[in-house]
Amino acid sequence: MAVLVLAEHSNAALNDVTAKTVAAAQAFGGDIDVLVAGHNAGAAAQAAGKLAGVRKVIHVEGEAFDHGIAEAIEALVVPLMGGYDAFFAPATSIGKNAAPRIAAKLDVMQVSEITKVIDASTFERPIYAGNAIMTVKSSDAKKVITVRGTAFQAVASTGSASVETAAAPAGPFKSAFVSAEIAKSDRPELASAKRVVSGGRALASAEQFNAVILPLADKLGAGVGASRAAVDAGYAPNDYQVGQTGKVVAPELYVAIGISGAIQHLAGMKDSKIIVAINKDEEAPIFQIADYSLVGDLFKIVPELTSKL
Amino acid sequence: MKVLVPVKRVIDYNVRPRVKADQSGVDLANVKMAMNPFDEISIEEAVRMKEKGLATEVVVVSIGPAQAQETIRVGLAMGADRGILVQTDANVEPLAVAKILAKIVEAEQPGLVIAGKQAIDDDSNATGQMLAALLGWPQGTFASAVAKDGETLKVTREIDGGLQTLALQLPAVVTTDLRLNEPRFASLPNIMKAKKKPIDTKSPADYGVDIAPRLSVVKVAEPKKREAGEKVADVDALITKLKSVGAI
Ligand SMILES: Cc1cc2nc3c(=O)[nH]c(=O)nc-3n(C[C@H](O)[C@H](O)[C@H](O)COP(=O)(O)OP(=O)(O)OC[C@H]3O[C@@H](n4cnc5c(N)ncnc54)[C@H](O)[C@@H]3O)c2cc1C
Ligand SMILES: Nc1ncnc2c1ncn2[C@@H]1O[C@H](COP(=O)(O)O)[C@@H](O)[C@H]1O
After folding, report:
1. Do B158 and A304 make contact, defined as CB atoms within 8 angstroms?
2. Closest residue CA from atom 15 of ligand 1
3. ipTM reported for the complex surpasses 0.95
4. Distance of CA A273 to CAs A99, A270, A289, B244, Å?
5. Rounded to an integer, what distance in angstroms lies between the CA atom of residue B130 and that of residue A100?
6. Local confidence band at B56 (pLDDT 50, 70, 90 cut-offs)
7. Does residue A228 line the site of ligand 1, with CB under 6 A?
8. Is the pTM higher than 0.95?
């Protein structure tokens, strides 16, 4: 058996979720090749070669890959799949965008966001915002899988696989990159941060979100998250949203501030190791899953916590 | 330009799903059902395009049981023109949904399909992308803004780390994210009017699509329960606790 893993990377470096996706592929079994499709992505390809358990790295250069254009990834991967039994991609915005196209072209029903590999055709995945865990058995000859990174332990960087290059598919594609607004931040990336501080609707403005949440996050060296209500109201950027339809996180410490605990929010954070909730409503559902609950006004509590740490 | 909007009938997002005791699935008997929230956003976007003169007709499609007709009616009351119900009691997976939609696209020739990014029951996040691949169309997934500019469609997408804007050659598939718009409530007169709008009823066999599932459900279980912890009196007590467990 052989598995092709799509690497998530920034060209200069490999994203941590790639090592977690390789771990899921190892649980599936067989030889593992990692596909690094990028633009000036030599460093990422080298890093992928160091992942434990990898047979080889396929490095492909193309401008379309800089922007994760789904049609380009489809055109690259589908012809390669003749040599593989499975395609594994991380359930990131790039993986979720491209993998279903590959599945449809191979006439395979994708198994989305798996959290466990039981055997080479049986997988666990959360459904209904994580309110149920479904075990499914795929009857397709090839498997197309996206992997929830928080559910797998990254493989170590102890390998020494060779890097091969392959040609990029010929374009043009029917979608063209226009622009991107990617916020640069020195804070840890939300999806892989060891600690996360999230704010909700109670913050009431972007100014207060920044003034209350960010200093605590900086004291803790934490990534910053938000509820949908806070994002919709413009208190925090879109990609801060934690939940069923946002990011899924599972840090060592998650601090939920002024967040009620709707099921859609819990879906994105209830696998955190330790959950702290700060809310003025004693009955807030978030307290039902929090390890440490502090009832009171966040505008008093959070600055005090920040100053005492 | 005709716009096609696929809508799914799902459990209402306010309802907490219950796993059946025999672990065969989630109990949907006597549970409130509604249109998938992302699909309301899709309808809203399509209707706004029509109001701006960018779209000529909005067609709503649902694949599901007879009751999915009610879901289509909601779309018609929001301003869509007509509906197609592909009626089946079977559980139709995203791949088969995409195949049926591809056949409907062949017959209807829309310039744009606007689907939801994800159905809140199966959480697959796959159908729109699959449809685009089957048709050989470009896609703008997780859209938070859409602007038509001649024969191209500019789609701003919510991606990890921020936003990305793509220019798609039409025809194309868009999938909607939460920030694209705020869906309207249908007014009573519009609900009445919607009762007279046509809905065609078809079956998967009419489209020659094999809907046999590729994934068989071994079991559906409750997630691990998280026990509620303890109340702490004040900030000092919280810090002491967090230190004692090594969290800070
Ligand atoms: C299709 C769909 C998808 C969704 N996806 C997501 C998702 O991915 N992520 C997500 O988060 N939500 C999601 N939601 C929204 C979700 O249902 C909730 O509406 C949302 O999580 C609520 O955000 P909140 O807790 O910040 O706001 P609220 O529910 O309004 O809670 C605010 C809380 O702040 C507390 N509070 C107020 N003032 C203070 C104060 N001074 N000090 C302390 N506490 C205070 C209140 O007691 C309250 O508990 C989704 C909804 C739908 C329909
Ligand atoms: N049975 C269905 N009927 C109509 N549209 C559907 C159906 N299933 C999925 N869709 C569409 O595909 C989107 C994504 O669903 P999914 O891929 O299942 O997460 C939904 O928001 C709908 O727009």
Report:
1. no
2. A228
3. yes
4. 30, 8, 11, 14
5. 5
6. very high
7. yes
8. yes
